[in-house]
Amino acid sequence: MMKIKKLITFCLSAMLAASSCSHAFAAGRPGTWASNDKGWWIAYEDGSYLTNDWYQSPTSGLWYYMGADGYMLTNTTTPDGYWVNADGVWIEGSAGNTGSSTDSATQSAWKNEFRTKWTAAYNDAAGNSGSAGPVRYGFTMALPDEISEQTVRQMCDACAASCQGRAYYWYHYSGENGILTITAVNSTAAVPDEMKR
Fold first, then answer.
1. Is the whole-model pTM more than 0.70?
2. Could you give all domains of the chain from N- to C-terminal order, each with its CATH number?
């Protein structure tokens, strides 16, 4: 049984356009595809665009990842460890920088559930806070033996960093008896110490 007991404190500042931490379509803010010589991106009516997050096509159901510059990633591994092909489409059950299928079905499903739970917890807390101040949130989920501490840490980093507009973050995770508990804070400035409890 893997036991994870670590306090991880990370602060990350980034110069990103403010938007919400959510999937572009799932959050009720549908975007449209746009392209130029450099590539494809998801554009919004207000002129902004999706960055550092996943986009699920409302018509095909396929998933695409938009990088820090807003362009769709292709033939690479996304920051949260998934492989996207030459068309930018997430290849289900695959991960790693070789593009080969290295995740088991359990690992792939677990990562998808983790991303979904993180996004839902953040969106719920951010929606309730109604301000640009710090947002504290958390969730629990199953932690199978085959999920490593490194995988948990990578998923936490990727999900926390994708909460644009609140580019500073702190999180804590612990895993015991097959249950993972996550507590996180995202903020527009340094995360206050009193929220790190």
1. no
2. 4-15+105-195 (no CATH), 32-95 (2.10.270.10)
